[in-house]
Amino acid sequence: MKFSVAWNREKIRWGTARFAANLTFLHRPMIGVSEAAQRRVNVAELIRINAGFATIGQGAGPMMVTWKAGLFQRYGLDVPAPRIMGGAKGVVRGLVSGDIQFGNLAAPAPLRSNLKGEADLVFLTGGINQQFIMGRPGINSRAELAGKKIGFVGDGGLNDALVNFIIAKLATAGITGLHRHAIPAGSDIEALTSGECDAVVITPPESVYAKRKGCKYLVDFAEYGFNYALGGIAARCDYVRNNPEITRKFIQAYVAGMHRYRTDREFTTGVQAEYSGISDPTVAEETYDLTQPGMPPVPYPVVSALQALLDFMSNEIPAARTVDARRFIDDSFVRQLEQNGFIAALAGSTE
């Protein structure tokens, strides 16, 4: 697939042709879903709920694999095709309004909403998002970012938090003068290849396309403990409290889906290519190969990473300075699955 900036922008814009095509995939019958999985549960006994995710990028993969593999049904839930919510703020709105009961999203938006008293959300699992700094063609090391421009979306999301974070971190390492340059959301590759900015925060599969266009990886946020740590499945506290059995079923299915993601490359890359509109299978395969090695077998929310993010957010929201990140997680459902042997048993399963 030849990349164009329009492809990237379609992830966040409603009404484009590709987005409509993705919706067609999401709402058609579950072709390819395991018939055996569908037969295991009497449809009349399924509990109907709704789920959604921020955008069609890397982070949505486990939820879509879970749905496509029929695992929500297997564990007693009737989940229609997960909804594309148009960004993390859209997921927060959907959870608060009750349009969806569970959402996959990055951490800054729900943390900010919680701190401002606009929501009361908790992370129930960790996620799989990886974040990198990539430089434009010709920039080969982070040292070369001194005095350069880094793309800044300005929507209060994960991009903004990580841009501010890396500017501060590089400055403490003597790489000074890196400064924000406003770019539209979804224009990261165009901004790099055109020379509009010198670096951007980026995640797969966009980073795969950027690499093929001569851009270099300069920073892997894994070195700060942020990869697989700044997002995951979230829900309203009151919903979890009032519906513990539904929550348990959802997390059980999702954990099984993450296992399927980690252990079935062919199935996972096929699902990713289909829901995200990737027509070049090698892009989906390279995204998988970049993602899979670091995926935790037990997807706990990462308290240390959320605490580090809160500490940094205190520059913007003073209330974050004294908040314990554990207030915003409920890992009891994942912990139960680990303690009762469910996660260990997945290693011997064929699904």
Features:
single chain; 351 residues; alpha/beta; D-Maltodextrin-Binding Protein, domain 2; 2 domains; 5-stranded mixed beta sheet; 3-stranded antiparallel beta sheet; globular
Q: Rough shape?
A: globular
Detail the poorly predicted runs. Answer: 1-32
Question: What string, H for helix and E for strand, traces the elements in order?
Answer: HHHEEHHEEHEHEEEHEHEHEEHHHHHHH
Cα-atom radius of gyration: 20 Å
**CATH-level-2 architecture of the largest domain:** 3-Layer(aba) Sandwich
Q: Kindly estimate the percentage of residues that lie in beta strands according to DSSP.
A: 5-15%
- Ends apart, CA distance between termini: 30 Å
Tell me the total number of β-strands: 12
Structural class: alpha/beta
Number of domains: 2
DSSP helical segment count: 17
Q: Would you give the CATH topology of the largest domain?
A: D-Maltodextrin-Binding Protein, domain 2
In quaternary terms, these chains amount to: single chain
Look at the structure and name the CATH superfamily of the largest domain.
Periplasmic binding protein-like II
Biggest sheet features: 5 strands, mixed
Structural features, described:
The structure is a single chain. This protein is of the alpha/beta class and 351 residues long. The protein has two domains: 5-129 and 228-346, D-Maltodextrin-Binding Protein, domain 2 (3-Layer(aba) Sandwich); 132-224, 3-Layer(aba) Sandwich (D-Maltodextrin-Binding Protein, domain 2), CATH 3.40.190.10. 43% of the residues lie in helices and 13% in strands. It has 17 helices and twelve strands. It has helices spanning 5-9, 17-27, 35-39, 61-68, 71-74, 88-97, 108-115, 158-172, 188-193, 206-212, 237-242, 244-263, 265-276, 281-291, 303-313, 332-339, 342-346; strands spanning 47-48, 51-53, 77-78, 83-84, 102-106, 121-123, 132-135, 149-152, 179-182, 199-202, 216-220, 231-236. The strands form four sheets. The chain has a five-stranded mixed sheet. It has a three-stranded antiparallel sheet with strand order 10-7-11, with helices on both faces. The protein has a two-stranded parallel ribbon with strand order 1-3. Helix 8 links the parallel strand 8 and strand 9. The longest helix is centred in the last third of the chain and has 20 residues, at 244-263.
